[in-house]
Structures are given as C-alpha cells and as structure tokens.
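Example 3.2
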Amino acid sequence: MLHPDMSSNDTVFAGETGPSIQADLRLQISTVLTERADVITADTVSIFPFSGTDSLDPDYCRHVGQLLVQLLAIAVRDARLDPRSGFVTDLHRVILERVLPMERLFTLAYLGERTALDELALDETIGATSEPWPLVAQLVRRGSFDLLGAYAERAQMEPAEAAVIDRLTTLHTRVMLDAVMAKEFERAGRFGTPISLILFDIDRLSALNQEHGYGVGDRVLERLGILMRQYFRNHDWVARHSEDSIAVLLTRTEAANANALAERVRATVEERMGFTDHRTDQPVIVTVSAAVVNVQVAVGDVIDPDRVLAEAEAAVERAKKNGRNRVEHVDNFLAGREGPADA
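Structure, written as tokens:
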C-alpha cells in the first residue's frame, strides 16, 4: 500500500522504503530551498522575460518570486499546500496588486522550479550525484504543481474581477487599494519620493437617496467613477474607498499639484454632477467634500498606510463640519511621526 504522501509514480530506492525516509528527504529539500531562497529568487527573476516590462518592475517580481520559493518549500515538506494558508493568501494579494496574468505567474513558477533544481543539484547530500536525486527532482516538480494548484483554488474562492474592480463605479476596490497603498508607501520611503492621498466623499448621499429615490445614489456614484478616470493618470490609483467615498493615490506628485487636482475635481462635480428630479422638476446639486494628505518623505522613511488613511478620513470630516463642498489640505504629513508638520 502506498503512503498517502506518495503517488504511483514516486520512486522508492533499495534500502530506502517507508514513509519516514521520504519524510526526511522532503525536510532536507525544504531546508535547502529555504536557506537558498534569496539566490533562487534572484536567479529566477534574472531569466524571467517579463521582469522590467509593463507594471512588473524587478522589485515586484522578486517579491512574487520569494513567495513562490517559500510556498514550494512548504509544498515539498508537507506533501500538500492548503489554499487558505497565509502564504497562499499573501501571494493572492500581491498578484491582485498588479493584476499579474495567470500565464505569467505560471512562467515565473516554472522558472523558479528549474532554478530550485539547479541549486539542489549542488547539494552534497541530495544533489545530482547522489542516489536519491531522481526522487528529489520528482518531489520538487510535484511541489511546484501542488503550489500552482493551491493558488488556482484560492483565486477561485474570490473571483479576480470582483476582488479588483468595483462593479458600480468600475474603479478599483478597497481590497486593491489596501494592497497598493502598502506597496507604494514602501516604495516612496525607499526612494524618498513624494506621495499623496486624496479622499472624496459625496455630500449627503443618504439624503439624496431618501429624497429623490434609492437609485439616485448609485447613478451619482457611477457618474463620479467616470469623472474620476478622466482626471487622473493611468498609473495613479483610483479606488472606491467606502459606500460614498473614492480614494486616489498619487505617486511622484508634488503637493501643490495634488491640491490643485482635488480642487478641480470638487469644482467639476459641483458644476456637472447635478441632476433634475423628474418628479418635482427641481434641480438637485451634487457636491463632494475632500481631503488631501501630502506625505513628506525622506529616503528610508517608514510610512504607515493606516495612519495616512485615518488622517484623510479625519480631514474629510473637518471639511463636512466646515460646510461641505470644500477641500481640506494636510501638507507635510511626516512619515513615521505622530502627525503632520502643519495641517
């Protein structure tokens, strides 16, 4: 009878029968993969043909590659991989961050498998000249297959489109925003580049629904999504933040430009987003309150996305308390500090 961890294709060498021997071998392979993860990742990314193209910068590819090596080590060690595990969830989040196509992920995983085998081949105990090498190679290939299978199952739990795109506004979702903020704030701190977060909140959206019909709010949000896409660059991140608010993350943008953009959007909403209530023929004005948090960044700063977002939400509340239809600025928000230098 085969051990549950073994398939009918698993090779068993003379003198090395039994599940305990294979478990020891799996642990040895996993240990080598973990110890040489940085080398395997670097070599894999260097031959990945899509690194440095489109939105797949080398740092991003290295991040994905490191997760793949970690997952491969676990898959080999445990002879299985739980699609709900933390590392699989992390991989799913990172892939959603850049909407990495499945075929490119599979290419990177395949190259990682080849590179891992090259590193393992050099090991004195289980390398290419050792007796168990054919089984070592087979276990790694099986682990790579299990890895991709677990990821595919995890992705099916939450359809990519639903996780990435908000169906009403056709903007990015909050899940996507959180993933992007973590990455872009880390990048801004590494290079000391300016970064700004704008938060727009529709004024009195609940009242609009109650007074003019519950379909009105959805139509306002849909039109606002269209408007937002016209005002920002392709590489800016525009996402639905909550039921009645939209966030925009601006990278490499000076504070004055971010403030001007927010004001321009506010004015355009007031000018163009109004509508006529056909039941009363009365014009209805739609406005937004907004906040701009401009983060002052120096090389090496650590920026907490939650603090920046909380600051933006608090500034929006100030805008509403001060009369709505206005923009509050938080300039020179200091990364890694308790608050803005001057708000």
